[in-house]
Amino acid sequence: MRVLSGMQPSGDPHIGNYFGSIKPNIELMGEEENIYIVVDLHALTSVRDANELREYRMNLVKDLLACGFDPEKGILFFQSDVPEHAELLWILSCITPMGLLERAVSYKDKLAQGLEPNHGLFAYPVLQAADILLYDSDLIPVGKDQKQHIEMTRDIAQKFNNAYGDGVLKEPDVQIREDVAVVPGTDGRKMSKSYGNTIPLFADDKKTEKIIMGIVTDSKGVEEPKDPENCNVFKIHSLFLDDDGKKELEDKYRAGGLGYGDAKKMLAEEFFNYFGDMRKKRLEISDESAKEVVKNGAAKARKIAEKTMDRVRKSVGLR
Ligand code: ADP
Q: Is the CB of 21 under 6 A from ligand 1?
């Protein structure tokens, strides 16, 4: 079985990315064939500074390695090192109905957040479909925020197969992590690199503490009972806890006597405990070793992508 994940190098990866994408992928490491794509072509929809993009790309590779991605067991590479992604994007674009893309919630969200409405942003789900279909992926573990996009991939694959022949493209299964809600950012909106509301995995200690202490809450005083279900600090903290731990923390919020300042300090402690080893490992990963990983990864990825494109080109009449 082939498990595929992708992440944009458009900023520092954050705990939403970790719980929604990195952790579920790495949990299957060794049992399944894992692919992780640093989707740098997607990042061009929002990053306009070449040096910044170069830095984000390398950093993300190192971050994924620090989180436990094992290049001996899986394939990690830059999307732009495999030109078949752009080729399949075009072929799929030609059978993707405009109406399908016009229904995409994330496009509307991004415009509402002030991003420029360019064609790349609009066509994003088609490039994502190409990323997935190129590798005959079986399983795409994603957070709920990506559910609609992945369903669009199935629609696009079906449309392609109806037009050009059954089974040319493999329609993947989607594994939505129902146990991971969309992780809220420090301001309560979805945590996202594009919204500047993230808790990064690998920022320095001081900055991380400052971000956690800045999580937006209501203005209830220390002694007042608090509603965990509507509290960003609780929602983020609960990601680190099992059911019993969650229940215990919930009771503390409801009982009153726990101020938001102390609740945030508890969260910061939990964060440093949980990510401590990964943060240490991150400091030891060199540029050279990361470059070697993605070079080897791209060579392996291209072998798979070329096979798919061979089928696709023949079926549409380009061979
Ligand atoms: P971002 O919105 O921060 O740019 P990406 O679009 O690069 O994130 O998403 C990479 C992966 O991380 C996707 O699989 C997505 O489901 C997951 N993800 C991103 N943000 C969140 C979040 N707030 N909660 C849960 N999962 C998330």
A: yes
Catalytic pick from 62, 190, 226, 264?
Answer: 190
Tell me the domain boundaries of the chain. Answer: 2-183+287-316, 205-282
Give me the percent of the chain exceeding a pLDDT of 70: 97
pTM of the predicted model, to two decimals? 0.93
Distance, in Å, from the CA atom of 201 to the CA atom of 178, rounded to the nearest integer, reads 22
- pLDDT computed for residue 143 by the predictor: 73
Q: How is residue 100 written in tokens? A: 């399908």
User: What is d(CA 182, CA 282) in angstroms, rounded to the nearest whole number?
Assistant: 26
pLDDT of residue 89: 98
Note the residue count of the chain.
319
CATH architecture of 2-183+287-316: 3-Layer(aba) Sandwich (3.40)
CATH of domain 205-282: 1.10.240.10
Q: Is 16 near ligand 1, meaning CB less than 6 Å away?
A: yes
